[in-house]
Design a protein that fits this description.
Strand order of the largest sheet of chain A: 3-2-1-4-7-6-8-5
Mean pLDDT of chain B: 84
Shape of chain B: elongated
Oligomer: heterodimer
Strand content of chain A: 5-15%
Structural class of chain B: mainly beta
CATH superfamily of the largest domain in chain B: Prolyl oligopeptidase, N-terminal domain
Radius of gyration of chain A: 24 Å
CATH topology of the largest domain in chain B: Methylamine Dehydrogenase, Chain H
Number of domains of chain B: 2
Largest sheet of chain A: 8 strands, mixed
Radius of gyration of chain B: 32 Å
CATH architecture of the largest domain in chain B: 7 Propeller
Number of strands of chain B: 25
Number of helices of chain A: 17
Largest sheet of chain B: 4 strands, antiparallel
Distance between the termini of chain B: 88 Å
Shape of chain A: globular
Order of helices and strands of chain A: HHHEHEHEHEEHEHEHHEHHHHHHH
Helix content of chain A: 55-70%
Structural class of chain A: alpha/beta
Distance between the termini of chain A: 34 Å
Low-confidence stretches of chain A: none
CATH class of the largest domain in chain B: Mainly Beta
Mean pLDDT of chain A: 90
């Protein structure tokens, strides 16, 4: 993505990387040159992280509890009973942007839609193919033959390559599909206000009650058009067959989403999400030239409604594939690239900052400052925490112990960091326990001792933290700072 | 605000308050500060870290027993001198007055507690004239019998300490000065005033088919002060009162003997670095004051340049 040079925007693009690198370098310099003050800050930082870890784990437990509590709710039945026909005018449209995914990936997703507890004559499925991708038309024909009469409408779309102003991103494809959907709805005389649109990844399988849950949240909302609806993404489709390293990364990703679902004031859309089609049309669809279309769509709506826009968590899961490959190295590379793409969400910062400066945006300064701080806090924290804990902290301990062996702090620093580490282990133990309840049933071809691996995989956590804790975020921020804009890196998904 | 969000807010503020309580406490503790309740102010303390071999000793500080046993640290000590007593059953007690400074750790981490009843283990039943245990091979010992007729190898690692006869009477010269195993531990050299003996152990001699028995000897050109193995185990470096010579084992001292350096010092001291094949030795040198001075030299047996002078007394004086 090549953007015209604009000094202010470039400054905003540099700021996140500048802050992250400054924190890391100052810590490292202090560790070598001033180990004593560094020890002081390391203790503060470590305590901060232990307390933050306890806080976030508590939120995780709360969100998890809520998820379990609402697991068996018959949402659609509730809607029918509570809203007395109001629901009948609501159509559920699903857009599935597809690139190279084969039928083995698409059919389970479509089957989950077909099995969903929602009237099929109120469901419109748009499978958004890329014209440039091989086999698009063939796959479309096969799917159309299978699902043409199963929903109110089954619409395959083919996004042409190289449209003006577009880059090769999922958002561009989804936008093209949404525009075709708009044409379809207009042709049928269906009001946009009565359509809820969900944009799912091609491998997303919904739970049976997903649309019922979505419908209920839509109907009870005070401003339903000014809300996005965010399910909890879990990576269960192939979790029993994925390598431990990939599994643990994805489980922690699901945990992050669960935790964020509790922090409503900073909750933004991520990956598969739903919203009113009218709002989508009003805000001019997903961005067509950005990688982070799933979070930018929230910010577009937020700015459009001058800050009066929220994301409502749906305590129901949508399941996707764990990104993995045949060997560990390829799996790690794939995971790293996927996480870097997620971390590229830092492009939200210059996007939001540039728009906050516009006079037409009527959001109070305090609210603007709060949101800017939240964006920076989440991205900078992501980029520095693992580096400080796994690299800087041991350097500081080593330097203090060796340079000031005789001091009390040199004696106490390793003991305190070790104690804090032990407290962290307790929170990890809770994660291990929670991970079991998110697991799908064990397939018959998977041996019973695979459950043991679900426990032992957590031994990888220090490596995971070290390797993909911060580096993808630092990488993404540094690229943005140097103007090396990322394109959409497709994560290959295949089902055996 | 629903119940969950209220709970979350409560949790958040609890964490914030905890942070502001824990951080100062942890920092004060880490840097050795302690609240003096009498004066109601923070004083900077020191600590004593005690580690013993063996572990598990009781620690008494100023006559008061501390909780736990070694290794432990006595913390929050105001600067001053403290009497430390360590006691462990079956071991001699250890005591000392130890100084503590503010903000500093006094390490007592080299303490060895010796047993009251020593552990003595008899390792052989043969009278011993002399013995050697080499640092690189602590599982084996070598000794010459009291009649100076036999050289034995003894296994120190096993319980029964089995012995192996390495060389017998006819092979051993009287009045052995020193004894050394080759780096590959397959050959032994020992020497007296003028004779250097090499004994091949086990099947090693097969490689030297022209050696009739498992040993041979070399008569040196003067009085032998030191003899060392070259790192390949196939050459021997000998320092006599006249020369430094190198002997090739496969020639049994008959050929390829190199007298590499003549010495002026008839009592040259020598030391050998096997890793680098460097011989350090002393020799006499005439100084500017026209007197003879003993200097230290380095002879690098791997490099072309045969030796270099390290430092002599004259240099020291200037």
């Amino acid at each position: 993505m090549q953007q015209p040079f604009e000094l202010t925007r470039r400054v905003f693009e540099i700021i996140p990387a500048f802050i992250s690198w400054s924190i890391i370098l100052v810590f490292i310099l202090f560790a070598f040159l001033l180990p004593m003050p560094c020890a002081f800050f390391i203790i503060i930082f470590d305590i901060f992280w232990v307390i933050r870890g306890i806080y976030l784990t508590s939120l995780l437990i709360m969100a998890h509890r809520r998820l379990q509590k609402e697991k068996n709710r018959l949402w659609f039945q509730e809607c029918k009973e509570e809203f007395n026909g109001r629901w009948e005018g609501i159509y559920q449209a699903v857009i599935l942007p597809v690139y190279k995914e084969d039928l083995g990936v698409l059919i389970p997703s479509l089957e989950s839609l077909h099995k969903a507890n929602y009237p099929k004559d109120r469901m419109i499925v748009v499978v958004a193919f890329e014209e440039r991708a091989e086999n698009s038309y063939m796959h479309a024909q096969a799917l159309e033959a299978r699902y043409k009469n199963e929903f109110y409408a089954f619409i395959p779309t083919f996004h042409p390559d190289g449209l003006p102003g577009e880059t090769r991103t999922k958002g561009a494809n989804a936008t093209w599909a949404a525009q075709r959907l708009k044409e379809f709805l207009q042709s049928k005389g269906i009001a946009f206000e009565g359509v809820l649109v969900s944009c799912f990844d091609a491998d997303t399988c919904v739970e049976k009650e997903y649309f019922g849950c979505l419908l209920k949240q839509f109907l009870i909302s005070d401003k339903p058009l000014q809300r996005s609806y965010q399910p909890i993404p879990v990576y269960n489709n192939n979790i029993w067959k994925a390598p431990s390293l990939a599994r643990i990364i994805e489980i922690t990703s699901s945990y992050c989403q669960l935790i964020d679902s509790m922090r409503l004031e900073k909750f933004v859309t991520f990956s598969s999400h739903s919203m009113s089609f009218k709002t989508l049309v009003d805000i001019d669809y997903w961005p067509v030239d950005r990688v982070s279309d799933d979070s930018l769509i929230y910010w577009k709506a937020y700015l459009y409604y001058n800050g009066d826009y929220k994301v409502i968590p749906l305590y129901i899961t949508v399941s996707m594939d764990v990104a993995c490959d045949k060997n560990l190295f390829k799996t790690f590379t794939m995971q790293y690239r996927q996480k870097r793409r997620w971390a590229w969400g830092v492009e939200v910062f210059p996007y939001v900052m540039m728009r906050f400066r516009r006079d037409s945006i009527r959001i109070p300064f305090r609210e603007k400052a709060r949101r800017v701080f939240q964006i920076l806090d989440s991205h900078v924290t992501w980029a520095v925490w693992a580096v400080i804990i796994t690299v800087v902290s041991p350097i500081s301990v080593f330097m203090s112990v060796n340079m000031f062996k005789e001091s009390v702090i040199a004696f106490n620093l390793p003991r305190i960091t070790s104690l804090l580490f032990q407290v962290t282990n307790v929170t990890i133990l809770l994660w291990v326990i929670l991970s079991f309840s998110l697991l799908p049933p064990r397939p018959k071809d998977i041996p019973w001792f695979a459950r043991l691996r679900i426990i032992t995989q957590w031994l990888f956590i220090p490596f995971v933290v070290f390797l993909v804790g911060s580096t993808p975020a630092l990488d993404a921020q540094t690229r943005l700072a140097f103007g090396r804009y990322m394109g959409f890196a497709y994560t290959e998904k295949k089902h055996e | 605000m629903d119940k969950e969000q209220k709970l979350r807010a409560l949790l958040f503020y609890t964490c914030v308050i905890s942070f502001f309580i824990i951080v100062p406490s942890a920092l004060l503790y880490s840097f050795g500060y302690k609240l003096d309740f009498k004066k109601f102010r923070f004083t900077k303390t020191g600590l004593i870290f005690i580690k013993t071999v063996p572990e598990g000793a009781k620690v008494f500080l100023e006559g008061r027993q501390l909780v736990g046993s070694t290794p432990l640290s006595a913390e929050g000590l105001t600067p001053g001198s403290y009497r430390v007593l360590l006691e462990s059953e079956g071991y001699y007690p250890w005591k000392r007055a130890v100084s503590v400074w503010s903000g500093e750790t006094t390490y007592l981490d080299t303490i060895v507690l010796f047993p009251k009843k020593p552990f003595v283990d008899k390792v052989n039943n043969v009278d011993v004239a002399n013995f050697w245990v080499f640092p690189h091979d602590q599982d084996s010992g070598y000794f010459i019998s009291d009649d100076k007729k036999s050289l034995y190898k003894i296994n120190l690692a096993s319980k029964d300490h089995e012995m192996t006869l390495v060389a017998e009477s006819s092979e051993l010269v009287p009045a052995i000065h020193d004894f050394s195993f080759s780096p590959d531990k397959r050959k032994i050299l020992f020497f007296n005033d003028t004779r250097l003996d090499i004994v091949f152990c086990g099947t090693e001699r097969i490689m030297y088919q022209d050696i009739a028995n498992n040993n041979f000897y070399i008569l040196a050109d003067g009085r032998i002060w030191s003899a060392f193995w070259y790192s390949d185990g196939e050459h021997v470096v000998v320092v006599t009162d006249k020369t430094i010579s190198i002997y090739e084992l496969s020639s049994q001292g008959r050929n390829n003997t190199i007298s590499i350096l003549k010495l002026r010092d008839s009592r040259s001291k020598a030391s050998y670095d096997l890793d680098g094949d460097i011989l350090y030795f002393t020799d006499l040198q005439k100084g500017t004051d026209d007197r003879w001075h003993r200097g230290l030299y380095r002879l690098d047996l791997r490099k072309r340049s045969p030796f270099s002078f390290i430092k002599n007394i004259q240099d020291n004086r200037t």
